[in-house]
């Protein structure tokens, strides 16, 4: 079953986070991920507001997890740590 990778982010260091984004995109694509939403318009209805919201679709929960734990994504993530406050989850798509 396909899955969605959903990130809610507040960027605190634009330069460092830009490096994360530059490296994360190819790492996500290498695991079959495609972006559905990336920093577009949003409406916060509940919970903590984060001004950057990203949704990527993966072939499965396992593919999304493999991406997260991959060397390429972890290298990207090193640039996001300390440059952002984030929540990230993966949820399986059900019909």
From TrEMBL:
SUPFAM superfamilies according to UniProt: Dimeric alpha+beta barrel (SSF54909)
Domain DUF1330 stretches: 2-92
Pfam families for this protein: DUF1330 (PF07045)
The protein's name: DUF1330 domain-containing protein
Species the sequence originates in: Pelagimonas varians
